[in-house]
Known about the structure:
This protein is mainly α.
Amino acid sequence: MPTTSADTSLTEETESLLTTVPLDIENGGAGSSAGGAAGVKSAPPPPTPPPPQSARADALRLVFGAGGIYAAFLYYGSLQEDVFRYTSEDGTPFDQAWFLQFLEALANVCVGFVGMKVAGSTKNIPQKFFIISGASQVSSKAFTSLSLARGLSFPVATLAKSGKMAPVMAGQLLLGGASYSTREYLQVAAIIGGTAVLSMGKKKGGVSTSTPLGVMFILLSLFMDGVTAGVQKRLKADLGKVGVKPKPYDFMFWTNLYMMCVALTTAMILGEVSSGMAYCSANPEIFSLIVKFSVCSAIGQSFIFYTVATFDPLVCSTVTTTRKIFSVLLSIFTKGHNLSSSGWAGISLAIGGILSEIQAKYSASRARHYKSKVSM
């Protein structure tokens, strides 16, 4: 299944790319072996438990990878909320979303370039779908930022982005011919329904947690998520046809390079480069927030690559998905979001949908693992 919040991304759009496009990871082994006489397969040997030292090493690697993702992106989400809640002394808010995305992508390009130099790069990578994917991802992230700038609360935006499976389903149904179970539709309905309840509810003081313009931008962001999912499926097929397996930092560099180009071009057209630089010059505090925000994004993506390469996309997807839940709760308890009872009911419904999605992924993974062992 093809993962900002208000990201918060991997960022989430990038998280999606990392968990849907195959990385250059080999499982080891030399393929299937013959067994038994007259074509009769022998029973598979019982699995050998890993030695205690290996299990401890895996646990430490998981703590390192998951801890890095949690630390980077929890702080990333908090910084993003702080950026769009900031106002200068004259009451002017920061709303240069495309300028912000340019700086974030620039940080990721720098880290991706260093990573390619250290780990090596892949030649003859087809660029067409990287360009389209980069454009759709940065558009999704910019629209999410604009939703925050236009008054949508961070918890609503983050939960709404957790329901991106809806446009992803639509994109893959239209472009990839995919099919989904009733449970998957119900999970998405729970996330969207819970987000809607939270969005339409009010804080204890009677103030709404969303605005019409903010809702419009988050819907545009979800639409671009659907486009991204369809493009990523085409990218995967395109890479398979030419027999190219890009390395992790190839994905990070090329995707963010095109994200940076699109963001810079759009920011220049909208006049956000000059206005953004002027705002940051007049308000050094927000420039510090933006720098830390961009660095967290690059560090978080590196930890995502590490986790996918060390374990598998399912582990990484579980970490990034549960991170969104903690981002919502952290925002509520530290940023002064005093929710009403209906707001808490909406959050509970949405989180229930998210946890059900995680459980379904693990069940499907265990079933595939069992089937592969039986067919050995």
